[in-house]
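Lecture 7 notes: from sequence to structure.

We start with a single chain of 64 residues. Read the sequence below before looking at the structure.
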Amino acid sequence: MGNPEEKVYSVSEFCALSRISKPTIYRLWQEGRGPESVRVGRKRLITESPLEYVRRIGVAGGAE
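Now the structure, written as tokens:
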């Protein structure tokens, strides 16, 4: 996240854009395969683009 203009996504935004459900995102984090993120207080912000993440893990949108 070196570029100050980089977009960060809430979990809800990321899920809507990537078409991956919240339970799946949380499961992927537990498995160590979730999108790159940072915690700000109790909130988790995703620093990886939904498109780049889906390409990286090879998941078709909506497939769970």
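DSSP finds three helices and three strands in the chain. Keep this in mind for problem set 3.
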